[in-house]
Amino acid sequence: MVRTSRELARRMEEHGQKTYPEECCGILLGSTDGDETVILDVVEIDNLQEDNRRRRFLITPKQYLQAERAASERNLQLLGFYHSHPDHPAIPSEFDREHALPWFTYIVLSVACGEAKVMTAWFLSESRDRFNETPLSIETTRPVKIEEERGSGR
Ligand SMILES: [Zn+2]
Predict the structure, then answer these.
(1) Which of 19, 43, 55, 141 has its CB surrounded by the most CB atoms within 10 Å?
(2) CATH number at residue 48
């Protein structure tokens, strides 16, 4: 299960609409504990893929380092990445699978004719041979860190 807020979902949708018909991509930050992942912030990154920006997003090693830094500055974990599929279903592509890592959360957002439509969440299987969809809960109140929600004695 991946949880986030309506506000953060809207920020990803607006990003996807802004970059349409090209893909947008960004970083997911938050906290995670076993089966539960809570997205507490999202950060936009530039799509540096040169040849086919409509279909492929690519995170460079430099952007990966920036993502790690953004997470530590906010005292959050780097959970994974989101990107849009302009005029394409919200299902990870073969290219996405080949470039994904098993411990990250991937959010895919379909943008049809410039309008954000469907948002889905995925994890890569341990063997990296397929993506498994996981429920995405978009909540009206802003989720808090899992540690804080469980009240670790404070
Ligand atoms: Zn994709």
Answers:
(1) 19
(2) 3.40.140.10
